[in-house]
């Protein structure tokens, strides 16, 4: 037996340039198997670019990637790796002119899941994530879904093949509080069973409640990578985040007119002539 690799995700000096812009710059990730890993950063820091490279949606400019001990850019290993991962990308990658169930049936065929098993799993996912409460709702095309419903369907598609490595780009954006709790419980259980889950998010509170490890990226460079429990010994996640990527000016920014104390104009003020 070949021993399982220590790291589910490993990168070395991973870079992605767009012209002169280094969106990701010498990124070294080490994510152990069974980890709930929260990948944090400000808007434009390089989170989604990193995720796209890890999932094969974007070629790196330089550096190496290993997923589950294999190089996903190697044609000989690419299919095997992709069969073992699930992805919720930034644009959700759904087929708008199919129903939700048709979307999942197609995903099941792509992963070569036996038809009966795929339908059993689809039924469970529909029930758990409330994707089809009645016959009329099940007939609805994805183009008519709300953003939250699309997010839930994309998560269902990512979970369908029971992946051992799951990449989720902002999985909690646009979902209600009840669904958010269901998703958190699903991800925690998956990690308990040995899956590795990589999450990008702007919601620090969810990451702090859910994740076991965090990485923080700033302007394409990794500035923090540590177990969450270790960070909490000295500061909260928010305090660590602000110390690494924020500034006093950012936190205390204000609008000049909010400090004004002028009396409101009577009767709506003078009308412009």
Description:
The protein has two domains: 7-84 and 163-268, 3-Layer(aba) Sandwich (Rossmann fold), CATH 3.40.50.300; 95-162, no CATH class. A hairpin with a 2-residue loop joins strand 1 and strand 2 (21-27). With 273 residues, it is an alpha/beta fold. Strands 6-7-8-4-9-10 form a six-stranded mixed β-sheet, with helices on both faces. Helix content is 37%, strand content 22%. The protein is built from eleven helices and ten strands. It is globular and about 65 Å long.
Short description:
The chain is α/β, with parallel strands linked by helices and 273 residues long. It has eleven helices and ten strands.
Structure characteristics:
273 residues; alpha/beta; Rossmann fold; 2 domains; four-stranded antiparallel beta sheet; 10 strands; 37% helix; globular
H and E string: EEEEHEHEHHHHEHEHEEHHH
The portion of residues assigned to helices is: 25-40%
CATH topology of the largest domain: Rossmann fold
Gyration radius, in Å: 22 Å
The fraction of residues assigned to DSSP E strands is: 15-25%
Structural class determined from secondary elements? alpha/beta
Total strands: 10
Euclidean distance between termini CA atoms: 85 Å
User: How much is the average pLDDT?
Assistant: 88
- Please give the order of strands in the largest beta sheet: 6-7-8-4-9-10
